[in-house]
């Protein structure tokens, strides 16, 4: 069974359509806020795609993920980053739709293996 979380109804719809096209019946997608969502289930694989750069509290996300993983589980992460600097997205003006719609209160992270070491102390690296 595959379980996914998104905040986007259109993303959920797209994933479900792709599952129908490819005859995948073992996928469940839920609309939820990852920062407040709680669950008891444990998973042997956790994949995070383009999420961490939308958050300010990396530790919260990584703590939740570690609680959702089996002891021998594997964690995969893909994220946008800058090669040198981390910086917060703040709207430049009222026409800054990129910040408003794609990175509200987000932070562009630094490409670094230390990111997970610093904020992921509950994950075994």
From TrEMBL:
SUPFAM superfamilies: S-adenosyl-L-methionine-dependent methyltransferases (SSF53335). InterPro entries: SAM-dependent_MTases_sf. GO terms for molecular function: methyltransferase activity. Keywords: Methyltransferase, S-adenosyl-L-methionine, Transferase. The keyword S-adenosyl-L-methionine applies. GO terms for biological process: methylation. Pfam families: CMAS. Belongs to the CFA/CMAS family. This is Uncharacterized protein.
């Amino acid at each position: 069974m595959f379980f996914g979380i998104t905040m986007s109804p259109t993303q959920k719809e797209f994933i479900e359509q792709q599952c129908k096209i490819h005859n995948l019946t073992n996928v469940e997608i839920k609309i939820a806020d990852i920062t407040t969502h709680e669950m008891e289930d444990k998973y042997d694989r956790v994949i995070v795609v383009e999420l961490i750069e939308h958050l300010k509290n990396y530790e919260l996300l990584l703590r939740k993920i570690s609680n959702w993983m089996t002891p021998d589980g594997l964690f995969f992460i893909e994220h946008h980053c800058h090669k040198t600097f981390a910086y917060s997205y703040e709207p430049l003006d009222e026409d800054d739709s990129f910040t408003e719609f794609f990175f509200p209160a987000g932070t562009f992270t630094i490409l670094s293996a230390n990111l997970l070491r610093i904020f992921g102390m509950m994950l075994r690296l």
